[in-house]
Amino acid sequence: GHETDFSLCDFAADVRAPTPTAAAELVSQPTEAWAGALDGAQDRLQALLYRRIDAHAQRLDQLGNTLGRPQQALHAHTRKLDRAQQRLRHAALLNLERKMQQIHGQSSVFTQKLAKRITQTHSRLDRAEARLHALDPQRVLERGYALLHGESGQVLSSAAQLLPDAKVSARLHDGEVDLRVLPPKL
């Protein structure tokens, strides 16, 4: 068979051989050619694999730098926590001091109000004592009045209660005296 016809398969095939012998020669290349092609493919595959490993290693290093070392991150968070604790302690002390000032202010206001109230109460007590002292029967007696008691000890407040020859006691500011009621003078 020499080249006379082309079939549709010839146009669809990747490689076309003009004769069956040439096709056999194409299919059965020498072993050195196949070994060389295989070595070249292996070299290309190995180079590709090394490039991929290197790219992944670089990416891993970038991620490691982004994350940092766990110990450094722990120290950074510990420092932040210490600063936050100091701010909280400072704020609590300021708040306590502010509350103490408020209490002190309220205490002084309370003390002033209490002192004023005590002064007012003393004044009221003094006025009540003066009124009570003015109404004290002993004070009335000191002004020259007398308190009369009948024989049975009842207080005599009306002349109608006095009968002639009745025994009466008169209480004066400095003591008591016994009296006898005289009949009215005609």
Task: Describe the model.
This protein has 186 residues and is an alpha+beta fold. 66% of the residues lie in helices and 9% in strands. It has five helices and four strands. It has helices at 8-12, 20-27, 31-67, 70-135, 137-142; strands at residues 147-149, 155-156, 167-172, 175-180. A four-stranded antiparallel beta sheet has the order 2-1-3-4. A hairpin with a 5-residue loop joins strand 1 (147-149) and strand 2. The longest helix is centred in the middle third of the chain and has 66 residues, at 70-135.
Supply the number of helical segments. Answer: 5
Structural class: alpha+beta
Strand order of the largest sheet: 2-1-3-4
Task: List SSEs in N-to-C order.
Answer: HHHHHEEEE
In short:
The chain has helices spanning 8-12, 20-27, 31-67, 70-135, 137-142, and strands spanning 147-149, 155-156, 167-172, 175-180.
Q: Which structural traits does this protein have?
A:
186 residues; alpha+beta; 4-stranded antiparallel β-sheet; 5 helices; 66% helix
Write the layout of secondary structure elements.
Layout: H1 8-12, H2 20-27, H3 31-67, H4 70-135, H5 137-142, E1 147-149, E2 155-156, E3 167-172, E4 175-180
Antiparallel strand pairs: 1-2, 1-3, 3-4
